[in-house]
Amino acid sequence: MTTVSARRRSLLRAVVATAGAFLLALVLFQTLVWQQGQERQHQERERVVEHAASLRSRLDTGLSSTLYLANGLVALIRGVDNPTPTQYRGALRALHDADPRVRNIGLAPDNRIAYVHPLEGNEKAIGLRLDNQKDQWPSVRRAIESRSSVVAGPVDLVQGGRGIIHRTPVFLEDGDYWGMISIVIDIPRLLDYVGLAPEVDGIRYWLLGDADGSGGRGRLAGQGDVPADAVSMPISLPGASWQLLAAPVDGWRPQAGYVWTWRLAGLVLAGLVAWVVWLLIRANQRHRAMAGAMQRLNDELVMKNTELTQLSRHDGLTGLSNRRHFDDVYAKAWARAWRQRRAIHVLIIDFDNFKAINDRYGHVAGDACLIGGAAAIRRAVGRGEDLVARSGGEEFAVVIENADAAAVDLLAERIRREVAAALIDAPGQLEPLSLTASIGVAGAVPNGPDGGADLYREADGALYRAKRQGRNRVCWAESRG
Ligand SMILES: Nc1nc2c(ncn2[C@@H]2O[C@H](COP(=O)(O)OP(=O)(O)OP(=O)(O)O)[C@@H](O)[C@H]2O)c(=O)[nH]1
């Protein structure tokens, strides 16, 4: 169950992390797409502004070169004393022919049109009084009042069609008003010269002029509605202000197809990022799970080893050290005592008439007595650092370091009493059992590193004597240490 829920949890963590990575990557890529769109819009605006500026510059050039013509005519009127009609017509022709954008030029002394070139097609204009032209009079009056040129238009021309009219008032040397010079500029030819069409290089253009010279708007070029976000460039002309407007044919924003392609690409990339994140997380989780399993196996192994070591060192019945462990520890204790020139004592304890216990109460009860007797020995020894071992069937051994003979003697006696006092509950027995022990003791200050076995033998000899002397007693070896 734990494994299943742990798997579910790690799967859930991987799903959440992957979803997070996907969303993050998606937001990042979509932001990049959006930024790129903004950048494209910016670039497109710069392109349109640059293109429109070059058109405006050509428009300025085209108009001003045409308008300079009027200055020549003003010079003629002022300079020549009473010019003849032939001289006027000659000058008008020359000026008209000099500029292909000029549709016709008219002279209106005292505001009455007297000369027009070319006459053909403009006959209707001859004799007209400018102050009778409701549409055109405001611009004429403005030119006279301001004593300077005024560009008006587009206006409907008396002789038909529409045009831009450049009016220059002529004042004589004495300051008297002589009349008006009107140069009609042909709009299509002007636009052709400028290169201004409704659509150029993917950009739509509109050119708005003063309709009547009084601030109203007349369209000189362009089709359809002008978008509110079109680039607007003012064109300042004498007495008038035009406006050149431009906007991309497909609008400022990148095309929907383009945007969606990049959005889709962002989605796919975010998916790829999420997939890589998923693979990495799962690989990491598998690695960690394996490392965890390895760790658990290792811990188990260490535990088993500890158990094995414990088993290999201890007696399974009494829990005391076994003979092999006793031999190891005793050899080390002996060497230590030799190095430190201190006394070491060995006690060998043997339960008395144990065969009779076995025979009388059975082997299981005998085992219980062994366990109870061993516990009594352990209790009596007390100090944990003193080695207590089961050295044989019903025989036990104790090693005492750092103690003098008197203390050891007391200890041996305490062991004997503790064993004799123990009341042992044995399986199948109504009454507690008891037993006694005979103890042989030997002690020495080692005179070499390997004399442990001799001391043990001496203790064993002392035990033998204790048995012979009637059991349940402590006997010291002859060479009492
Ligand atoms: N129940 C039980 N008996 C054991 C165990 N190990 C040894 N014995 C018995 O201990 C008895 C030792 O008997 P003996 O060596 O004759 O000595 P004893 O009867 O104790 O007599 P003395 O030592 O002379 O007092 C034997 O009967 C063994 O079978 C054991 O692990 N469990």
From TrEMBL:
EC number(s) per entry: 2.7.7.65
PROSITE patterns hit by this protein: CHASE, GGDEF
Pfam families in UniProt: CHASE, GGDEF
Transmembrane segments: 260-281
Keyword Membrane included in the entry's annotation: yes
Alphabetized SMART domains for the sequence: CHASE, GGDEF
Entry-linked SUPFAM superfamilies: Nucleotide cyclase
GO BP terms: proteolysis
Keyword Hydrolase found: yes
This protein's UniProt keywords: Hydrolase, Membrane, Nucleotidyltransferase, Protease, Transferase, Transmembrane, Transmembrane helix
Residue ranges annotated for the CHASE domain, each copy included: 113-194
GO molecular function: diguanylate cyclase activity; peptidase activity
Domain GGDEF: 342-479
Catalyzed reaction equations: 2 GTP = 3',3'-c-di-GMP + 2 diphosphate
Record-linked NCBIfam families: GGDEF (TIGR00254)
Protein name, as recorded: diguanylate cyclase
Organism: Spectribacter hydrogenoxidans
